[in-house]
Design goal:
single chain, 151 residues, alpha/beta, Immunoglobulin-like, three-stranded mixed sheet, 3 helices, globular, binds zinc ion
Length: 151
């Protein structure tokens, strides 16, 4: 009888501790305009976020073919390469080179009035590393980029 009580107690403690360590999804919203701008120059995500959910909204009116936007996360040192290789990938591939391992997360390319969401685990990110977000639509990344801070 004592043993049973002990097991019940242990499993309760285990359930409580795993509930405490549950995923923390941190939500971020960012918008892009017909003026080729993001409304944020920096996104900061706390170290205890296990997942990040980024919602990109296109507040303009122009279609994706003319003024498409996506939200792409990469190391700051990879930003230029991701942008230049993405340029040739075309709209059907969301202006991201197929299998580009430098792309840590990305939404699809959207046009005016649309929205897209991407959710990713922070386990792929390292504290102290410099990350950036950008739009890989051709010609956009010089204006549409910002710092992504984790930790
Ligand atoms: Zn764009």
């Amino acid at each position: 009888m004592k043993t049973i009580r002990m097991i019940a107690c242990l499993s309760l403690a285990f359930a409580a501790s795993s509930a405490f360590a549950a995923d923390k999804v941190c939500k971020v919203e960012i918008s892009g305009t017909d003026q080729m701008q993001f409304d944020k120059k920096e996104i900061a995500v706390a170290a205890d976020c296990t997942e990040v959910e980024v919602t990109l909204k296109h507040t303009g009116k122009l279609p994706a073919q003319a003024m498409g936007h996506n939200w792409v996360l990469a190391k700051t040192s990879d930003l230029a390469g991701v942008a230049s290789d993405g340029m040739g990938a075309g709209l059907p591939n969301d202006y991201i080179k197929k299998g580009d391992a430098r792309v840590l997360a990305h939404t699809k390319v959207i046009g005016g009035g649309q929205a897209a969401t991407v959710k990713f685990a922070t386990s792929a990110l390292k504290k102290g590393e410099a990350y950036s977000f950008l739009c890989t639509f051709p010609g956009h990344s010089s204006l549409m980029k910002g710092a992504f801070k984790f930790g």
